[in-house]
Amino acid sequence: MFHSITDFLKRMHIMSDNTTQDQTTVAAAAVVTAEPTTTPEETQAAVQAVVATSPATEDPTAAAVVTNVVTAQAAAPAVQDPAAQTAVTAAVAAVASAPAEVVNDPVALTAAVTEAVAATPAVTDPAAAIEASHAIAAVVATATGAPVTPDTLGALTDAIITEPDEEAEATEHLISLLEEALAILRGGDEKDETTDAE
Questions:
Q1: Cα torsion 98, 99, 103, 109: sign
Q2: Integer distance in angstroms from the first to the last C-alpha of the chain?
Q3: Could you tell me which residues come within 8 angstroms of residue 38 by beta carbon, excluding any fewer than 6 positions away?
């Protein structure tokens, strides 16, 4: 858990040689797990640490959405349960790491958040699941500018309490590899046909 802006800025420095996604997750985790900062300057620094990693910052509308989401999370009480922290961090990081076209599309952004949360370990404690559900619903509502519908809340809750389907992910990866191999083989066949025609 990060207890101060200094703690997570140090962590960000350590992560500086890693991917932008890693940096986004670390910065988002700092905002999710830290108690509300004591000064406006610290809050602003925490928000900027996340927003700075966003690929959407060149689009003013998308940048405002990301900033609003992170600012709201920074002002919220810290999430206490470790599994809930992971789920909420994934939601915030999904918004911050999304490209502008996704951030500006409420349906696509909600789907991105739901998918990111679904990839995290299940929150099994009922009280923690409720905490995560409220926090992530707030992320989606702030990001989309609209109240979360019952259907969306249900999908988010399922994502929070369900373990990731690793078997399905492995199957999708295998299918992707097979498709790539097939494309290579087809390319070779096309070359052979061209050679025969000559």
A1: negative
A2: 67
A3: none
Per-residue pLDDT reduced to its tens digit, 139-152:
999 999 999 999 99
157 is written with which tokens? 């809750």
Residues contacting 62, CB < 8 A, separation 6+? 54, 56, 100, 103, 104
Cα separation, 71 vs 73, in Å, equals 5
Q: What is the C-alpha to C-alpha distance for residues 197 and 41, in angstroms, rounded to an integer? A: 71
**Nearest Cα to 117, choosing from 80, 76, 152, 145?**
152
Report the 3 state secondary structure along the chain.
CCCCHHHHHHHHHHHHHCCHHHHHHHHHHHHHHCCCCCCHHHHHHHHHHHHCCCCCCCCHHHHHHHHHHHHHHHHCCCCCCHHHHHHHHHHHHHHHHCCHHHHCCHHHHHHHHHHHHHCCCCCCCHHHHHHHHHHHHHHHHHHHCCCCCHHHHHHHHHHHHCCCCHHHHHHHHHHHHHHHHHHHHHHHHHHHHHHHHC
pLDDT band at 4 (very low <50, low <70, confident <90, very high): very low
CA gap 136, 112 in Å, rounded: 12
CB atoms within 10 A of CB 118: 19
